[in-house]
Design a protein that fits this description.
mainly beta, 5% helix, OB fold (Dihydrolipoamide Acetyltransferase, E2P), 5-stranded antiparallel sheet
Amino acid sequence: MRVQDLIIDPRRSLGNKLWLCNVMPAFEYKNGSRTDNIVAYRYEIALPERNLDKISVRIDGQQLLEAPNGFVEVKLEGLELSIYWSNGNYQVGAKATGISVINSKA
């Protein structure tokens, strides 16, 4: 079995609370070079139940939320985690199909 084929339980791995901190565009690459074409957005998520570690979650298509001033609690739909090898280390990859705000910071 390959490490890339493992299915990881997001709730057990990340915790129940997810805080959106930032939103950044993800660009298309052709022949190893970045183009100006935005194909997805990366939502930087802080994990309060994991010492505020952060994970970047890619969602293909149009931008669904603006970057908050501070953070907002969110829910991710269709969240999948994976492990991959890059630059001599294992990395955690994350992608989802949707994101929505569930609670605004007071």
